[in-house]
Amino acid sequence: MLQYSMLYPKQSVSRRTVSMDGMWKFCLDPEGKGTEIGWADGIPQADLIPVPASFQDFYTDKDTREYAGDLWYETDVFVPEEYAGKNVAIRFGCATHRAEVYLNGVHVASHVGGFLPFMADITNVARYNAVNKVVVKINNELSETNIPCGKTKVLSNGKKMNSPYFDFFNYSGLQRPVKLVAYPKEYVFDLTVDHRINGRDAEVSYSVVTTGEHPVEVTVYDEDGREVAVSQGKEGILHIENAHLWQVRNAYLYTFTVRIKDEEEVLDEYSEEIGVRTVEVKGKDILINGSPVYLKGFGKHEDSDIVGRGFHIGVMKRDFECMKWIGANSFRTSHYPYSDEIYQMADREGFLVIDEVPAVGLFESLMNFMEASTGKKTAFFAKDTIPELLENHLRAVEEMITRDKNHACVIAWSLLNEPETTDEAAVPYFEKVFARAHELDVQKRPRTFALIMNSLPDTCKCYHLADVISMNRYYGWYLMGGYEMCDAEAAFRAEMDKWAGKDLDRPFIFTEYGADTYAAEHKLPSVMWSQEYQKEYLEMCHRVFDSYDFIKGEQVWNFADFQTTEGIMRVNGNKKGIFTRQRQPKDAAFYFKERWESLPLNHKSK
Ligand SMILES: O=C(O)[C@H]1O[C@@H](Oc2ccc([N+](=O)[O-])cc2)[C@H](O)[C@@H](O)[C@@H]1O
């Protein structure tokens, strides 16, 4: 069985989960000698550090914050006697960017890719009714053979440094919850659902994978706990009469319970909350339950003070409250799949999510700036690193879709952010990635990728593969900013006119547009970086959006200010937030609230 294909860990009559979050031992390994000198058995001189969290922002010295290389975590976990005879595993929400896991000195798991969960099966290695030592070796170096892309430099003092081909800070470590899980030998390994609406009723086709031959029963309960459908067998169709559909910002979640039965005995039971809805692209529209929607929302990051990219349940709650207040209905998980809990909350709150794989930096340049807008070619897809990169990319697509396929909130897969698309060599690479997503998703959700500034109607070789065309555009910021705004608008319209001329009969959305804004800066008349300029810039973009009927969404960059690599293009972070990093509104937030509360859900469609 695949290590990564797993249902989110939950308790039930047959399953146990115990949180392993808390203070773990932690140390850096700049010489990369830990494995050789036996750290798998236990790490030396360890500091204590919170899990989940990025390690970088706790410390007060730069060498730690900027550290590139191996880092080690260790904790003790008590495995109860009652788990003996079951499958026992440790589930890591993520380990950024690659990990080796040891239990009592024995290697139990490896994982590459920093933003998706994996399991370490410890059934045969664990000591039962005893304390067990868990050691995790993580490496946070960037390369061109793994996503996200970048490189590792060595400075003249011998220290390594990450040099990302993207702007967000390379936060790393055990950034998401870690859980000890126990489940029966014969267990529910996977559940997949697909929805069809039939008048007032819904038909949910499902398939269940188990590790044994005993019969399977699937029961659906409504929000009041009433049984509304039941079906026998590993595959089948659940008929829900008078179905309560999951709607945008008006969610309804049924509980789907899968039971493996031996006569009357329940061998395993697993429940998941699932919204019943359909997603489809038809002509220039994105349809949810057959009705057109206009996306209003954000590109986001998992990013906050102190914990960095670490999952924090309070930050998640505040983000959703801010998004509800402002009248948003959607977000993109730029530039990596987020922690599971965020999709659960989006399901509950009725948000539409564009789920993005960590394929960012597929364009060689320092932080992706400037050069990208000049039309520079880096022949990225012609490099000899491409076969290995593709393999890692395809696996991330597979792990993301496997993890997120049942979430009602997920309405599209974003398969790359701002790759180089001006070279023919990109085409076969894109074809493989797009084909894999289509093949893996039974719901056949629309696939997209975010087009960088120089991916233009006459230069982009890959847009034909996207079911929804997602544009990242910075006219009036990176191009023709400030007093040149009138030319920026003209150039923006000229590009959109060319797209219109192609008559693609497909929806376009804006997945990025934005202007860096210092929350403390006011200026009349405006200058770039002032709050007044951010609003003028946004008004210009919205004038353009509102002029084209095929534009079916706007996700401004970014929800909040976020930490980046330092450099002359960033003032201690990217300041394009509509909210500050502390999640307080800039002036533009009030402007968005007014606009989004007045735009109907079917804006520009009938
Ligand atoms: O710069 C930004 O704020 C954001 O824009 C995007 O990157 C660009 C950078 C420069 C240019 N350009 O020079 O045209 C275009 C795009 C990235 O997707 C995003 O991660 C980043 O934070």
UniProtKB/TrEMBL annotation:
Q: What is its EC number?
A: 3.2.1.31
> What's the domain of life for this entry?
Bacteria
List the Pfam families: Glyco_hydro_2, Glyco_hydro_2_C, Glyco_hydro_2_N
List the Gene3D superfamilies hit by this protein, alphabetically.
Galactose-binding domain-like, Glycosidases, Immunoglobulins
What GO MF annotations does this protein's record show? beta-glucuronidase activity
- Record domain Glycoside hydrolase family 2 immunoglobulin-like beta-sandwich: where: 192-277
Q: Which InterPro entries match?
A: Beta-gal/glucu_dom_sf (IPR036156), Galactose-bd-like_sf (IPR008979), GH (IPR017853), Glyco_hydro_2 (IPR006101), Glyco_hydro_2_cat (IPR006103), Glyco_hydro_2_CS (IPR023230), Glyco_hydro_2_N (IPR006104), Ig-like_fold (IPR013783)
- What keywords would UniProt list here? Glycosidase, Hydrolase
List each copy of the Glycosyl hydrolases family 2 sugar binding domain by range.
19-184
Q: Which residues form the Glycoside hydrolase family 2 catalytic domain?
A: 279-598
Q: Is Hydrolase included in the keywords of this UniProt record?
A: yes
Q: Which family does it belong to?
A: Belongs to the glycosyl hydrolase 2 family.
Q: PANTHER family of this UniProt entry? A: BETA-GLUCURONIDASE
Note the NCBIfam families from the entry: PRK10150.1
Q: What is this protein called?
A: Beta-glucuronidase
Q: Tell me which species this is from.
A: Blautia caccae
Underlying gene: uidA
